[in-house]
């Protein structure tokens, strides 16, 4: 596979996200007003309580098995490291830029939490279907890639709706620091709908009786899995369009400092991918990561993703930091067309 083919394969999924984002932005302008403020709030609630849990449970149940969970044990650790390193870098950024107390949770969340669900579920199938993909036959690549992306989605959802959810919901408490936040996580918030969906998905994946009852053309309860899959399919385009609508606020300006925004960009697109290369290649060298180029690519990709879209959903749910979050998302996703394409192409070359 030539360098140009790798670049095109990496660019196509990013363009899909940007097109849906632009559509959402267009639907939110005053002259159209299809995705006004009230509409976005209602859609966010539907995504939070219905689409995201359905997406998690259907993908985990459909693509993950007990055997694959045992083989892919390094991925939860890999994702945890992205959150830890991102949080440390985010805290350093906060101290350096003297970020206002009310925005510290938002900045930490954007540095720590990447788009571990939506982006891999878009990028990996698109790369597998591209002609000349470095990951082998399209069908095999798609089957394995969806298993990897589904596990990434589930683990990311658990971390997002426990750790980041609590960070964003204490934005207005000036004296609450990261250490206190981690110690006083609310158990009720820990079990957000997406987390419950992940637990249900893992149960289907590892309990043979449940899997036989729900998964497969001959499963007696396959209608439940099919219905969840239909709802889950709506999650990615809905979240992407709503995020595009939220970006309109970013175009109107904000009080957030430019060094803070550029610092988040540097953390997510420069520092974290470099740490990712060291960690993943180190894992391969030590025999902790299996010698599957597609699996290694997914692990590397988890370090180079833009901030999680769900952060925008959280700020809108709590009605805090919405405009500042819009600015951050505007710049990080605009620059993703360059950064994510570059890193995806480089990672494919590295593991191929």
Automatic annotation (TrEMBL):
Its cellular-component GO annotations read: endoplasmic reticulum membrane
Which UniProt key words apply to this protein? Auxin signaling pathway, Endoplasmic reticulum, Membrane, Transmembrane, Transmembrane helix, Transport
Q: Does the keyword Acetylation apply?
A: no
Transmembrane domains' residue ranges:
6-30, 42-64, 70-94, 106-127, 147-169, 190-210, 230-248, 260-288, 294-315, 327-351
Q: Name one GO biological process term.
A: auxin-activated signaling pathway
Q: Does the keyword Transmembrane helix apply?
A: yes
Looking up Pfam families in the UniProt record yields: Mem_trans
Q: Where in the cell is it found?
A: Endoplasmic reticulum membrane
As for membrane topology, the entry says: Multi-pass membrane protein
**PANTHER family on file:** PTHR31651, SYMPORTER, PUTATIVE-RELATED
Give the similarity note: Belongs to the auxin efflux carrier (TC 2.A.69.2) family.
Q: What does this protein do?
A: Involved in cellular auxin homeostasis by regulating auxin metabolism. Regulates intracellular auxin accumulation at the endoplasmic reticulum and thus auxin availability for nuclear auxin signaling.
- Quote the protein name from its UniProt record: Protein PIN-LIKES 3-like
Tell me the organism. Answer: Punica granatum
């Amino acid at each position: 596979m030539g360098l140009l083919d790798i670049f095109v394969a990496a660019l196509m999924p990013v363009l899909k996200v940007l097109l849906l984002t632009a559509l959402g932005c267009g639907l939110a302008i005053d002259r159209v007003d299809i995705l006004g403020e009230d509409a976005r709030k209602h859609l966010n609630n539907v995504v939070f309580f219905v689409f995201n849990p359905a997406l998690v449970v259907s993908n985990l149940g459909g693509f993950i098995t007990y055997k694959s969970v045992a083989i892919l044990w390094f991925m939860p650790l890999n994702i945890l490291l992205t959150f830890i390193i991102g949080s440390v870098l985010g805290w350093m950024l906060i101290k350096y830029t003297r970020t206002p107390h009310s925005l510290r949770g938002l900045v930490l969340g954007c540095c720590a939490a990447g788009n571990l669900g939506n982006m891999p579920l878009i990028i990996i199938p698109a790369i597998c279907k591209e002609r000349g993909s470095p990951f082998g036959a399209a069908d095999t690549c798609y089957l394995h890639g969806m298993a990897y992306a589904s596990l990434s989605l589930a683990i990311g959802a658990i971390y997002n709706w426990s750790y980041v959810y609590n960070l964003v919901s204490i934005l207005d408490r000036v004296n609450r620091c990261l250490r206190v936040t981690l110690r006083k996580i609310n158990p009720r918030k820990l079990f957000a709908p997406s987390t419950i969906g992940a637990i249900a998905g893992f149960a289907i994946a590892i309990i043979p009786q449940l899997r036989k009852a729900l998964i497969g053309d001959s499963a007696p309860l396959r209608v439940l899995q099919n219905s969840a899959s239909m709802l889950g399919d709506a999650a990615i385009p809905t979240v992407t369009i709503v995020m595009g609508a939220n970006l309109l606020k970013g175009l109107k300006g904000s009080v957030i400092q430019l060094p803070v925004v550029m610092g988040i960009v540097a953390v997510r697109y420069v520092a974290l991918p470099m740490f990712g290369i060291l960690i993943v290649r180190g894992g391969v060298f030590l025999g902790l990561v299996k010698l599957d180029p597609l699996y290694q690519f997914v692990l590397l990709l988890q370090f180079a993703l833009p901030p999680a879209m769900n952060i925008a959903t959280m700020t809108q749910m709590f009605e805090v930091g919405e405009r500042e979050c819009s600015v951050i998302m505007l710049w990080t996703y605009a620059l993703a067309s360059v950064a994510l394409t570059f890193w995806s192409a480089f990672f494919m070359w590295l593991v191929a």
